[in-house]
Write a structure and sequence with these properties.
Two copies of one chain form a homodimer. In chain A, 15% of the residues lie in helices and 33% in strands. The first copy, chain A, is α+β, with helices and mostly antiparallel strands and 225 residues long.
Amino acid sequence: MIDFEAFFKITYGLFIVSSGNKTKGNGFISNTVFQVTADPPRFAICCNKNNFTADFITRTGVFSVSILEKDTSPEIMGRFGYKSGRDFDKLQGMSVKYGETGVPIVLNESIAYLECTVSQTIDTGTHLMFIGDLVQSAVLESTKEPLTYLYYRQVKKGIAPKNAPTYIDKSKLEASKPSVTFKKFKCSSCGYLYDEETEGVKFSDLPDSWTCPICGTEKSDFIEV
Amino acid sequence: MIDFEAFFKITYGLFIVSSGNKTKGNGFISNTVFQVTADPPRFAICCNKNNFTADFITRTGVFSVSILEKDTSPEIMGRFGYKSGRDFDKLQGMSVKYGETGVPIVLNESIAYLECTVSQTIDTGTHLMFIGDLVQSAVLESTKEPLTYLYYRQVKKGIAPKNAPTYIDKSKLEASKPSVTFKKFKCSSCGYLYDEETEGVKFSDLPDSWTCPICGTEKSDFIEV
């Protein structure tokens, strides 16, 4: 018996993982960044094989991690988490620092960053795990708290995109839940779907100040579907 | 330039990772448990090569993860986090369930658990990373929050043991900080050392209700060293 709800009890942060060079780069929202050894400092990240950034990491052998702040805006989450760099230049207009290896490091709404060179690549199935040796690290905002996946899900009402290691196929989640009537509400701006069943909170119970986690559109501009 | 403080901005949960069989087993406190693929559900853990549990995982090819609750007691943290199973039977007297593979699963102060069979073992240097396919998972307490590493450090004043991937050699941390006068206080029961410099909070500023994060001894029973 597999209870998918158990997966949500694992704590994660939220990060922008970037790769590339000064000419061309890309980044995506990841919740799987973690230290694997203390001496030397080594960090691992997971990346879907279809992910545009995976190509950059494989080609350049470098990646950076921007640790997002608790109040990261829907614009940053939408830009890096729910859109592909194949369609537009995600780094265009962003505040980007280039690391010692030339890798782009996104500074927007980040409290710290890491720069790594890949030492091992592991094929875990649908995803690649890259293990990187630390080149440099810095704190940008010492007083702000990091964004956690739990906070993003519970307070910001965000969902994992399809390429995330923690993405849950809704049909599987539904199969393990009792049958009740839930509604869906669609953002009239970006099309984001708020599903009462997945979220566990009725749309009418959300505060009036609640906005679309993707594009920031007001609650009153959602339409029942 | 490496700022070790940046490492503390990465969010982790805290878990008991166990292995073995119905006859003999062991478990340790880990902060590196994470999902690596969604389909099939696969999870990774990191374990120091010197860790007694690493031997069990290598020999049996199975491990379990107990996701600790926010208010995990100092007794559980001390038993599984700061002592070795080479010296005593950590599972003795604990509430243990044996999984489908026979692996012990610690239920004490846990809100959910996972049971996995090892599919890949990766040598990352001082540590081994085990990637496991999920056999079963369950939620034990749906309303309680998970314990996070940040909460354990900031509120519980806990420190990472020497075998943790996130352990920081105090001399390295000191080198990146300005010089000020800090004191150390020792627990008269278990010998735990409260270091004002590492903790960032003066011992006298801790509330009177504060207790040793390892064994629960009262603040008044600490001695300045």
